[in-house]
Amino acid sequence: MNEKVAQNLKLVIEYDGTRYVGWERQDNGLSIQAVLEDALFTITRERVLTEASGRTDAGVHARAQVVSVAISRKIMPRKLRLGLNAVLPDDVAVLDIEEAAEGFHARKSAKSKHYRYTILRGPARRPLARLTSFHFPQALDVQRMDAAARLLEGRHDFSAFAKEAARKKSCVRTILEARVTAENEFVHVDLTGTGFLYNMVRIVTGTLIEVGQGRRPMESVAALLEGAKRTHAGFTVPPHGLMLMSVHYPEPRQ
Model-level pTM? Predict the structure, then answer.
């Protein structure tokens, strides 16, 4: 990254993560970060490093991922957005760009994030929803799932809901709001929290599905928050039903 910084920018981007290895640049495939940084180079002729609010995994989508980037020359945000969208692939788009405060960092400045996992229930597949929802043909008790989800709210040890809990110094995280709602044949699992562990939302969703099936007592979710092992929680749902919905930041000082 260039040492001289003329602008610190905040980008809001939307992407379909189907054909990507995730947000972070990797050697084993195409990433959202690589695509965005290449587009920035095409428009600005600068090699820059972008920072996202979080590293979404392979196949995961984002409706409003937030990215920060510093560039060494002034450019109108509106002009930059038009230029980027002209060269980005069809499955990635910049929704908004604004000049941010000097210390703004997409990840470090974030106050909370909202993730949504979408389940398609019922016997019939929906081809138009195949890339953004997980088809689960069995009946689900949404009210039981919602009641179990609310037990997740607060500050807890989420070791049972982490794929690699042993590699973390702490698996304590804070969930501000957890809800499960039905929208026709779709069931949405919405989690808003200050931080998330690897595969946490997907494991939570698999556990709530088991509650909705009647295979797992609703109250067992509370027991999982007392330092239980990963093997005690439910299965990990596939990535394509997961979407980063929004990222929240503190209100700017007046």
Answer: 0.94
